[in-house]
Design a protein that fits this description.
ABC transporter involved in vitamin B12 uptake, BtuC
Length: about 325
Amino acid sequence: MATNKKTEQIKNQEVISKKSFGQIIINNAALTALVLLMILFAIVNDCFLTTNNMINILTQVSVTAIIAFGMTFVITAAQIDLSVGSILALAGMIFMALSVAGVPVFLGIIITLAIGGFIGLFSGYLITYFKLPSFIATLSMMTVARGIALLMRGGTTICEGIQPSYFWLGQSKIGRIPMPIIVLIIIFIIMDFVMTRTTFGTYNRAIGSNLEASRLAGISVNPMLLKIMAISGVCAAIAGIITASRLGVGSPITGYMKELDAITAVILGGTAMTGGVGTIRGTFIGALVVTILTNGLTIIGVSSYWQQILLGFVLIGALALKKFQK
């Protein structure tokens, strides 16, 4: 009898350990996917794990991650922002137009960020005071921002008369590290601190968990939502400045489908679409997964059309996994 009991205990412990291991994998799906993708692409192509390609990946991820950081605050508050890709394009156009007009680069950055924040603020105003669903409000602003970007130069790029100082943020380096990576690190530290160590982050999660309960608890819900949407707009504008500075032109067609990349990164990182749960660290890992997937597929010769299809399936898989976790 004693032997049988010991055998049953050992079997139960094995089952529990297997479940625990499986649960760890599921709960850290983004990190697991990141490791598996890196191993896969390293096996397929020798160039993948080179220092130059790793720096290239981090430079590429800077734009997606910065947009996704702002999106994390939005989705954690149980909202959505579909306008970020269009704000990116408009910010790039405005930034380069200011350069052509002779505006000093630091003033150009401030003006561009202010415009991005204003667009986000206006979306927040539509959500809070006109009671429009965030999907409709930001879809409208997506169309408006893209339309203005196209209207500025009749759909053409701004590529002449640009001050060399305007390329600094996207093309300069500190040692071997490109400036976009430095900007990414700074914004990551700030955003993670705000989300985890401030009352703003706590209120953000509370609003996403239960908006009415948050209002009854004394949280100023409408001003909070305005700030959250403004943060998203500013993040998209930063991404637009970096993109325009890297390319050396202002293009009205940049940022296409960037909202999908950002949302995918946020969901992969563990943020709940229903709100109340979200981490900047998880979002960064999610952004790395999206960028490494794109980078690796490009290296092995997969067309951009198939990449978009695969990213769509990745988003579906991430949402399905969140449902399974519940």
